[in-house]
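In response to reviewer comment 3 from the previous cycle, which asked for concrete evidence that the modeling workflow produces usable outputs, we include below a single protein chain processed end to end. The sequence was submitted unchanged, and the resulting structure tokens are shown without manual editing.
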Amino acid sequence: MTRSVHVLDPGLLTTVQDSGRPQGPSRGVAPGGAADPWAARWANYLVGNALGAAVLEATLVGPRLLLSGAAVLGVAGADMQVRVNGAPVPPGHAVRAEAGSVLESGSARRGARTYIAIDGGFATEQWLGSRSVDLAAGLGRPIATGDILPLGAPVAGAMRGPVENTCRLSATVRATAGPDASGGLAARVARQNYRVSARSDRVGVRLDPEGGPSPWEGVGPAAWSRRLSVPMVTGAVQVTPDGTCLVLLPGRGISGGYPVPLVVIAADWPLVAQWAPGVTARLAIVSRDEAIAAWHEEGHAVPPA
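The workflow returned the following structure tokens.
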């Protein structure tokens, strides 16, 4: 009998995500995938899955789920007070659950996104080789009450952990100079403090300036009024005419017209994904060599395949 998960309550925004679709841009679709790939990989590691298997990504408020069969569940990322049959399952922990078990979760107390993995992974529909829901591209939708999510075959003997830190948090993220760093725009963006906006989503985290000079001081957004749309990447920091910044996440589009003075380094994408509304955030400029070194450092810290 195929195992499944019955959605009793979807939470605020919960979607199925995996490691994404690398070939997506050639088809006009962003790569997508988990907003916090670090936490998603750890969730899969805890239950013995391939690190890129499909998991549930919950944002700010988690879901309530019913298991149709026995399974191993792992939780990583933000602390959403997950409980299975009333027993707490903190981030970095896995638990064996019998058929009929209920997973409940609440609001995030630390971070913004929680990842729930089940051994065998979620066996939902695929688009362009990935199960990742892409809301901007119209590929799939968030889970809803009454949904039945199929699971893959059980993984024999699967359960690992606990893992000490599956949620990386920092108010400051590192960024390299972007294609529009000239004219001092990058330096002015990096000097500003920002407040994470509640309008943030999987497309990107919106940063509202907390006082201080406008990044457009001495330049003016009119200088970019005839700019054509250009390709975009995850981590790109777009600056709008009112001085708001948008740090693009995996749910982004593949092109955009706002200038990009900075690009958040890949090693720090998980930090951006865990910025919750109201958090004060900063961008620090680093060199290309520092970005590469940080990437290698993160590579040594990810779960073993």
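The first strand starts at residue 4 and ends at 9. We consider this sufficient to address the reviewer's concern, and the full set will be provided in the supplementary archive.
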